[in-house]
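batch_manifest entry 22 of 60
target: SSS family solute:Na+ symporter
source organism: Novosphingobium capsulatum
requested by: lab member K.T.
priority: normal
notes from requester: please return tokens only, no post-processing; we will run our own comparison against the previous entry in this batch. if the run fails, retry once and flag.
--- input ---
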Amino acid sequence: MIAAFVAVMALSLLIALWARRGAGQGPRAFFVAGGQLGAILFFFLSVGETYSIATMLGFPGGVYAGGEGFVVWFFGYILLAAPVLAVLGPWIWRAGNLYGAVTIPDFFAAHFNSRLLERVIALGAIALLVPIGTMQFAGIRLVLGAMAPGLPMPLLLAGAGLVVMAYVALAGLRAAAFVAVLKDALMLGAILLVGALALLHWPIATTPVATATVAAQVPVTLPFALSTIAVQALGFAMIPQNWAFLFAARGPQAIVRAQAAAPLYMVMFPLLMAVAVFARRMDLPVAKPDFVFLAAAQHLLPGWALGVVMAAVVLAGMVILSSVCLAIAPLLTRNVLPGLDGRAQQRWAQGVTALFIALSAAGAMAQVPLLAMLNTVFYFGIVQTLPGFLAALWTGRVRAGGVLAGMGVAALAIVGMRLTGVSAGGINPGLIGLILNSVVLALLTLMFPRRDGHSVMAMLR
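--- output ---
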């Protein structure tokens, strides 16, 4: 088992090393692959990276623990995210190309001519991306703990972190794109294999005790599920690493074509649901819901195959970690600490990567439960840049102050609801914040319109 796992990790490093061939020079080549990713690589990078370790562990764990409401939530936002990105993605590419942007704050700084807005968005994005790193390392911890229970967990996580740093250092976003092909092939293969074997070994008798005991742990109400679908589908287009992926495309049509094929990945979800139900019916020993996929794999597979499946899960987390590192690094080196030259940006990027990996691993050591629930915390805040971006597309009358005020009101509302426990009928606080954000932005634009601005659409005509 361990030999098969190590072989897959070694293969991923060789692929990352091979990705250096043809890589350009400078920050744009490092952070967004110079905007020259071909159709196949862009597809695997932009679509395949939607499905991370939270898909393989968090989704079946949520089905096992949360029942129907969780399924509605996860299916809904994944399905809706593709058309949202198909519509907004080409405009994000055009806006980035217009201003030569590498990050979200690059665009906002250039369009609204505001260093304050640039720094606020950059710092907010950095803070919100840390839970994504924690989520990946939490899943990696589950796998490594099951595979090598006798070794110290900090040492195992440090090894995973070094592999991620190697991806980043070897070829930047190109490495993430090339390794994403291997990750997706193994991830889909592992899900198809374990799902098919679960169906072949489907038990006739049902064990009702496990169902009744576990399902109450993570209730997901229908209002929360439906409102979270909206927040996450809209927020998906505003994720910093997704902007980097979009900027890496050769043109808007490549983005549309990739999103048109995105629903093909949905074939894995019925199989993951089957695995979760199989584990429940078989009453497999599951210490926590996020372990349900691995528990089924251990029950169904021989050792070497289990090693490959575990490698696929870990690789899913590490590829996402590398892309998040490549999103955080330019946020700091370009937007928080401006004035660094190209080489300095790449040197700082490696230091930022090491720090981010250390913080994410430390968060995972705290054993945060249910990977999928971390997703909702991330999307609360990341979606709040959407009103400002849409306003920039459609009108030149919006001021930077209006964008800042809208995001500030949203942040206060979300934090207030979380701290006080106030519930608006079970609606996701992120959606409440998004509505307030849009209202404040619209009112301030009507009261204090910008006189010298132009919309992105007008400038692109």
